[in-house]
Amino acid sequence: MDTVLQLENLSISFDTPEGEVQAVRDVSLTLKKGEILSIVGESGCGKSVMCQSVMKLLPKNARIKSGRIIVDGIDITNFNEGKMRKLRGSEVSMVFQDPMTTLNPTMPIGDQITEAIHMHKKVSREVAKKRALELLDLIGIEDPIHRYSLQPHFFSGGMRQRCVLAIALASNPKILFADEPTTSLDVTVQVKIIDLLLELRDKLGISIVFVSHDLGVVARISDRVAIMYAGKIVEIGKSEEMFYDPRHPYTWGLMQALPSLAKEGQSLKCIPGMPPLMVNPPPGDAFAIRNEYALKIDYEEMPPMFQISPTHFAATWLLDERAPKIISPISLKRSSANEG
Amino acid sequence: MKDNTLLEVRNLKQYFVINRRLTIKAVNDISFTVNEGEVFGLVGETGSGKSTVARSIIGVNKLTDGEIYFKGKLISDGVISRQNKNYIRKNMQIIFQDSAAALNPHMTVEKIVAEPLEINKITKNKVELEEIIDESLSQVGLSGYYRQKYPSELSGGQRQRVAIARSIAMKPDLIIADEPIASLDVSIQAQIVTLFQELQKKYGFTFIFIAHDLSLIKYLSDRIAVMLKGKIVELAATDELFLNPCHPYTKSLLSSIPVPDPIFEKNKKIIDYDTSSFTGEGSISEVSPGHFLLT
Fold this sequence. Notes:
The complex is a heterodimer of chains A (340) and B (295). Chain A is of the alpha/beta class and 340 residues long. Chain A folds into two domains: 3-222, 3-Layer(aba) Sandwich (Rossmann fold); 229-338, no CATH class. Helices cover 31% and strands 24% of the residues of chain A. Chain A has eleven helices and twelve strands. In chain A, the strands form two sheets. Chain A has an eight-stranded mixed sheet with strand order 6-7-8-3-9-10-12-11, with helices on both faces. In chain A, strands 2-1-4-5 form a four-stranded antiparallel sheet, with helices on one face. In chain A, helix 4 crosses helix 5 and helix 5 (125-138) packs across helix 7 (157-168). The two termini of chain A are 35 Å apart. Chain B has twelve helices and twelve strands. Chain B has helices at residues 50-58, 78-83, 85-91, 99-102, 109-119, 126-139, 156-168, 186-203, 214-220, 238-243, 248-256, 262-267, and strands spanning 5-17, 23-35, 39-44, 65-70, 73-74, 92-95, 174-178, 206-211, 223-228, 231-237, 284-288, 291-294. Chain B has an eight-stranded mixed sheet, with helices on both faces. A four-stranded antiparallel sheet of chain B has the order 2-1-4-5, covered by helices on one side. Classes of the chains: A alpha/beta (340), B alpha/beta (295). The A-B interface holds A 42-43, 157, 186-191, 194-195, 213-220, 222, 239-240, 243, 253-262, 267-271, 274, 332, 334, 336-339 and B 45-46, 155, 157, 185-191, 193-194, 197, 212-216, 218-220, 252-253, 256-268, 270, 273.
């Protein structure tokens, strides 16, 4: 498989009156063609900023401090707005949480899709309309010819999100960033959108970066999962490795906080405290003060990425050979797959 | 009526007349009872009427039809409701989803918690008032440091704690929580859920918990009612509902809950139910003791 996206030691900071906010700190990752990578983390951990940096949609006071962004073999780190406009939509595309803020409420859905097609290709109106109808059909909207001329308010939340997807896919992007695309939807609709994304991946071979805080949804969609905390990726690995053999205490904490994994009659275990402010991130491991397994070194030195398997990495000193051996409190086993 | 019934909703109808041709039947003839000390979960999709039920119970909406009894008193009746206004306000509290909108941005935390106590003249003097504020805030895990803060200075989780402190300060019998944690992060959600559990154990509040997150409802509730298009389609004890769901919509809802287990999740079959075919006709019958189903 070939790599479509590569982030190399990416750091992004915001200049604010309070000082420099280090939103993303030294993040490296690769995304293969046709792969779905989920980014999980609490609000403010930098997951959205990371996506926006590839799209170059960062606010004015943000700057890429160091590192490189490589999309499909091209280094876009220093691309200007003009070059980015060509790239957006054709190479990288993004879907946001709330479809109503993405869609124009006064414009028929069909026109909004053809607008996206015309942006990138010189085609006649008829060709664009034909392509738009194909897209509506692809994303599972029934009776596309009739719905083509309807405004967004005629559509339900799930259908609106499908239309947003159609716009995002209008110019065959290679990478799709989906920033919490199902958070505002009902569970029954959520599942359908997830399955649609999986289907699109199979049909179009598109790579998807899926940002979410819902580990259940992540389990359904992902090939690989990255956990972010305080601007850093603290653990990354294949979906199975992450759920059945998590190594970072923060990943343990997130899983223990889930009611669906809680044992009968047992109270939920929560991660105490709050994420740190990123104006002056603590030295060492940013998670140390909330971590019941924290070692002395966690407060002094940042843990490197330890390799657990060829695909599984975690940044915690617990994996150092000098560290005390701690048994993971997560008891999710592969066998539980058989339980109802 | 049994002795331990705290709240009884009988044939509640809540219609909203938009214009001459269009009437929205937000809640259409539902009945249920909530027992003292239990956590009653109410789930359903957006627009199923679950929040309307909450608003009807606390008396925001004037009922189209039906009766609501609280501790045996018919509170949906205008005259009785007015006579017992103080009593009802004192004993029924609601917590909303969006704590930023529910708290007055111009008031400090201390004032927010004190306001209902002062309005309902619960405290006799300042000392007592201070005591209750202190106690409520510490119950929800906020130290005295936060007393002079404004809502804008707090995080979402802390704001929700203030909203909870305000309602428990009244020592109500019934707390209605309308999606209280939907806008919070996973780890903060767990903190708030644990807080609810502790408070419930300590004071024995009765909760009506409204949410669309089924895994949470399953974790917290003793009994669950599933709503669809203004109707209760199924009502049962939590274990019974999850082991033996009867209505196709409940089955579809249960199969849609995302489980954090990749192998299970990727092989899971989703039961699809087309809600547009649901007419809401039929009557509630008891399929097994305590398990009600709309057929």
